[in-house]
Specification:
It is a single chain. This protein is of the alpha+beta class. α1 (11-21) runs antiparallel to α2 (25-36). A hairpin with a 3-residue loop joins β1 (61-67) and β2. It is built from 6 helices and 6 strands, in the order ααββαααβββαβ. Helix content is 26%, strand content 24%. It has one domain (11-46, 55-185). The longest helix has 12 residues, at 25-36. A 6-stranded antiparallel beta sheet has the order 2-1-5-4-3-6, with helices on both faces.
């Protein structure tokens, strides 16, 4: 398959991952929908996703395109993600938008997902009112590999602009992309 991307998926491992990673309610609902679209031991393709079945989650949904260890681009991003970043994310190189100290971690996390894992990450942010907001985001692999080795990821963050009311430029100090990242393998050994 090239680029270190697996095709040895395992639906039973994906089901187990949902229990082990214990996503919050919104992320669990999206992950259950994603799991319902599996074809045997193959995760859904991007084309299988139906926005009407993800209505409540759409503001926090993104489709990411990853070439393992090389590139991470945003194919599309929901309104909450765009509001939080303060810029249009569609087409953006997400590694370039990441503070230099955390670029390897960001690309590494997504590379691990396209190689056959599911990921959950927790991040704490301080709002303008001084309150702490805990954000959980997940990355779920999608099937299919482009000619250049690109594979897509279904991403969702559970926050909306009311809980994260600062733009990325305002919260960059203290930004720690690696806080609480967890992975669960979805491949057959």
């Amino acid at each position: 398959m090239g680029h270190g991307v697996t095709e040895r998926w395992n639906r039973q491992a994906a089901e187990q991952a949902l229990d082990v990673l214990a996503f919050n309610a919104k992320n669990a609902a999206l992950a259950r929908y994603w799991l319902s679209l599996w074809d045997g031991d193959t995760p859904p393709a991007r084309s299988a996703l139906n926005p009407a079945h993800m209505k409540e989650m759409l503001p926090g949904v993104a489709i990411l395109d990853c070439r393992p260890d090389e590139e991470l681009r945003c194919r599309l991003a929901g309104s909450a993600l765009v509001a939080g970043a303060g810029i249009e994310l569609k087409g953006q190189d997400l590694v370039a938008l990441t503070p230099p100290a955390f670029r390897r971690q960001r690309l590494g996390r997504s590379s691990q997902v396209v190689r056959g894992a599911m990921s959950r990450r927790h991040q704490q942010y301080r709002t303008r009112t001084g309150e702490d907001a805990l954000v959980e985001d997940i990355q779920l692999p999608l099937s299919g590999v482009g000619e250049d080795g690109t594979r897509s990821i279904l991403f969702h963050a559970d926050w909306r602009p009311l809980t994260l009311d600062r733009r990325m430029g305002e919260i960059i100090d203290g930004f720690d992309i690696a806080v609480g990242a967890e992975f669960f393998s979805l491949v057959s050994i």
